[in-house]
Design brief:
Radius of gyration: 22 Å
Distance between the termini: 47 Å
Structural class: mainly alpha
Shape: globular
Helix content: 55-70%
Largest sheet: 2 strands, antiparallel
Strand content: under 5%
Order of helices and strands: HHHHHHHHEEHHHHHHHH
Oligomer: single chain
Length: about 400
Amino acid sequence: MFCGALGLFLLGLAIYAGFEGTSAPDRNIALTLLFVTAWLGFPLLGVLLGNVFPAFNPWNAVAAPIGLAWRAVTGNAPPHLAYPERFGRWPAAVGLAAFVWLELVYGTGGAVSVGVEPAAVARAAGIYTAYTLVMVAVFGREKWFANGEVFSVYFGMFGSLGKLEFRDGELGIRRFLAGSTRWVVGSGSVAVVITSIGTTTFDGAQEGVFKGGIDRLVELLDDLGLGAVASTRLASTTFMLISIGLVALVYLIGVRGMNTVPGAPDRWKLWRGFGHALIPIAFAYLAAHYFSLFVYQEQAQFTFLLSDPLGTGSTDLFGTASYGINYGAINSELVWYVQVVTLLAGHVAGLVLAHDRAIAYWGDYRKAARSQYWMLAVMVAFTCFGLFLLSVSNA
């Protein structure tokens, strides 16, 4: 209960700071709290421990007491519509793309954190809160948080890699990575993983590999009369979708290749069955790309942003408002080593998961090994491309 109240308080703080605080992204706590501390912190905790987000879920902190009150008054569970199984986790996949779009495309870009204005983030957070509570009222907490709520699904994906899990209300220990084998359920689950990799790829490529293409498309759209802002957003949106599509294509090639091995299940079963092997890669891309940002912005989070959350200069709650970020805390060599090790470890973990699933599907070790030549090719492609993006951005 305390954790849920804390999560609700922090969400409220971010919304309030977004509306009432400074418009400077690097001085307003809203952006760092949402896009760095929460967005990157919960996946890290998930891999190290397990999925801890349900305890801090601010929307559950609102919905749970309402549900309990309903039961106390009526003696029955709140009425809900049946969740359409064909929807699966597609609402979460689309919502994930929309969240990253807000950060990377809607905003104008920024050197410190994100370029979107704090007020725009606050409006988006308020709208999303209303949307989530309506969906919970319609479909119920359990179904919506498991399938449609973006952050519950996304953080739960990474939490499936950790050693701790709650099952039937009890905390237990499992083998590292083991939870991921049960995470891909229903349609849309693989789409969530692919969207995670694709959007992180776009973030790394938009100022490097994709920059020339984006600039040329912006010029073309501007010449067609769309205007500078609309042209920039449409061009960036196009390349973000291309990034997601390329990740899906690489994985699809691996699936089609495995399907040629005698005794292979159908392609749809392979597509879903090996999707969990991409989760460590999604985390590796996330951690490698945002490692330095997380280190720097968490210094800000727990010093000047904590003392002056609105960034107006009018408060100094903990005496740290005058502090700055120590950019010498880590050097470029350390960043590169962390990025390389993280990428390699993520891809090795993915191969381990894929190998175990192949043995379960084929039974015969030789056929299972043949099928994994294709997954090895997929992993090598992701590794090489990830290292290439990092080398370009670090250059």
